[in-house]
């Protein structure tokens, strides 16, 4: 039975508990939390699952692709093209073993990564596209990729990441100077053809000599990049999956929380120094502790300690961190991919700790009231308000969007809490701090998990709770319009306010 097609009696929904309505804006978090979703180590997990599992969207979701269109094996994923090739390290293939970028010259947007990008954006998150790409490509290739990005809002493009290393194909085929020159060339093309895109230069870290890794070669890339970035794990087994990690392994490492603080602090200080004091955002684009080294029970210990340090000390050198990754075939994920079924995740102990930590206000976008629509409402007055129809909604991104806040007074903890929403709209809704997604075609959602899930905030009798409503683009893309800001902002109109069915008694009680 398709419940979307049923005619449902909605007469029991209303606004009796609503006490005020405001237009509000999302503002940046003290430290944003991002999430890696899919790579050479695991498959992409849909955002419906992740948001329901963690109770909130992330600011950015990072996906990873590769683009070597001149190679003879292209466009096959390289591990599939060379399934019988004997290798003893993940990056021994002719090009990087990420899913292939299916855009570019002569391709369309029906495949990947565009389906994933749409999924991310319609769920109220922004995309970080990591792409390892052939530095010999002519401008025409890069221009087409830039055009591919134009409708995907405030996307971040991370070009040839970890470029101070030796393992990726770009480091094996090109010098550090050539990699930096390519980044600058691609950045300039992006700014001309897709100014909605933010470029990320992911290099290395400060060395014992006080300079950045490959600093002289990378200096121009540091100067033009919109965001500085570095990938660092407090513990990592670099030889996975070709080696079982034991204490005597020379291909795993770990470091203390204090040394990680110093590394990030000094790295950002050096980047600011060599860029004439300019402060740019710094993102830890891949950040985690590998359970292959610590075991699953202790995996979250260092991660949570570092996040508590960020929350308590609020250092100005750390803008965001990306947990790498949600589900993993090894032991990096919040979930372990079931070896019997790649579509099933096995929750790891770190998931519960991480889920609790990202509820903290410091890691969440702020809410600012921009217009009071109605206050001190009495029963029935909401229907009479002239401001309650055709409310304009603006979706800019996960930290800059305009939506609606309804204050709802509860007699006590509810037994039922349903919301009636405009059926045609694509909406992200927060109730009591827990987020829900509503797709087009759905009209009623049950938001009771906001009250009964482990760790949910207890509601006291007579307390007001906040219900937030935002409207990301329904298909994940910004339609091109005559507005000058169409590539960065998506506009829609909320034609009808949400209504509520809130009950405090069960319909029947089973005697036991």
Can you walk me through this structure?
With 512 residues, this protein is α/β, with parallel strands linked by helices. It contains twelve helices and 23 strands. Strands 1, 14, 15, 16, 18, 19, 21 and 22 form an eight-stranded antiparallel sheet that branches. α7 links the parallel β6 and β7. The longest helix has 18 residues, at 176-193. 44% of the residues are buried. The mean pLDDT is 94.
Number of strands: 23
- Structural class by helix and strand composition: alpha/beta
- Give the biggest sheet: 8 strands, antiparallel
What global shape is seen?
Answer: globular
Low-pLDDT stretches? none
Number of helices: 12
Helix content: 10-25%
Q: What portion of residues belong to β-strands?
A: 25-35%
Mean pLDDT: 94
Distance linking N and C termini: 33 Å
The radius of gyration computed from the alpha-carbon positions, rounded to a whole number of angstroms, is 24 Å
Structural descriptors:
single chain, 512 residues, alpha/beta, eight-stranded antiparallel sheet, eight-stranded parallel beta barrel, 12 helices, 23 strands, 27% strand
